Q: What sequence folds into this?
DNA sequence: CGCCAGGACGCCC
DNA sequence: GGGCGTCATGGC
């Protein structure tokens, strides 16, 4: 990856990156595609920092941000410090993963906020992606366009959250908010715990089971060995990996999972 | 209309 | 410890 400053923009060259594949592959729910003269443009936020980013034929434009903000925030968010060519080379020793990596070459694992991830993936359970986005949108709209803090959400009740139309998940959102706000569940500490201990801590929240805990670890804490298994990954495992996953992916199994999920959901079943 | 969705929980054995 | 019904809501 390399970049330079031009006017008020940061211009990035990175071949292992595609906005559609990265921002709309079920790992994040709050990026919006907007009309532009570029190949595509998205606008979104990390915590309270807003970004508009475009993809052209040969580069990416991070609009209207300083070099410092780019390096301090977005470089990390988009995981530009990791060489995805190297990862894909390792994954592609396996036949199915080779196809998945070739199918969507530009997927990257975003380094998202753990709190937002926790609530987002609680909402995701037994739900579909368009509706997950809608619920999160209604939630953020209610807080001036920002994702509410644990402190703010801990004031709510399942009844007061009725406007979300999140169904049975509302009481899970409340339990998570209260436990995080009180410190009973400490996301910062959990992020550096041994994996099994971290899972146990996250599952103290009502509504957080194996799958949601794994998603929080992977997407919100960048624990790349975490491996969420949803209905699509269950299909991949049953169809292509009856004897389990290859050992050589284990350190970054979660990233491999992201290619497999997208491949199965949009290519194989289409 | 019926089936399904980036599941978790409670209850049963 | 594994199997099964239930839980809201709405996308398709």
A:
């Amino acid at each position: 990856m390399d970049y330079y400053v031009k006017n008020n923009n940061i211009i990035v060259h990175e071949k292992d990156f595609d906005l559609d594949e990265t921002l709309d592959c079920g790992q994040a729910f709050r990026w919006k595609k907007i009309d532009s003269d570029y190949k595509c443009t998205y606008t979104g936020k990390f915590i309270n920092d807003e970004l508009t980013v475009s993809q052209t034929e040969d580069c990416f434009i991070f609009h209207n941000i300083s070099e410092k903000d780019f390096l301090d925030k977005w470089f990390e968010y988009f995981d530009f410090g990791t060489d995805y060519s190297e990862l894909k080379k390792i994954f592609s020793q396996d036949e199915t993963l080779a196809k998945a990596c070739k199918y969507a070459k530009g997927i990257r694992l975003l380094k998202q906020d753990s709190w937002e991830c926790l609530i987002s993936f609680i909402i995701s359970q037994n739900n579909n992606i368009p509706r997950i986005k809608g619920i999160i949108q209604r939630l953020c709209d209610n807080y001036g366009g920002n994702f509410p803090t644990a402190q703010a959400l801990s004031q709510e009740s399942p009844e007061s959250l009725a406007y979300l139309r999140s169904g049975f998940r509302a009481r899970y959102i409340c339990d998570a908010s209260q436990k995080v706000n009180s410190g009973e569940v400490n996301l910062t500490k959990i992020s550096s715990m041994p994996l099994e201990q971290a899972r146990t801590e996250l599952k103290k929240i009502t509504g957080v089971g194996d799958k949601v805990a794994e998603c929080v670890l992977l997407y919100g804490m960048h624990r790349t060995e975490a491996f969420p298994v949803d209905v699509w990954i269950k299909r991949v495992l049953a169809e292509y990996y009856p004897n389990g996953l290859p050992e050589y992916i284990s350190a970054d199994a979660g990233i491999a999972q992201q290619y497999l999920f997208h491949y199965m959901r949009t290519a194989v079943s289409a």
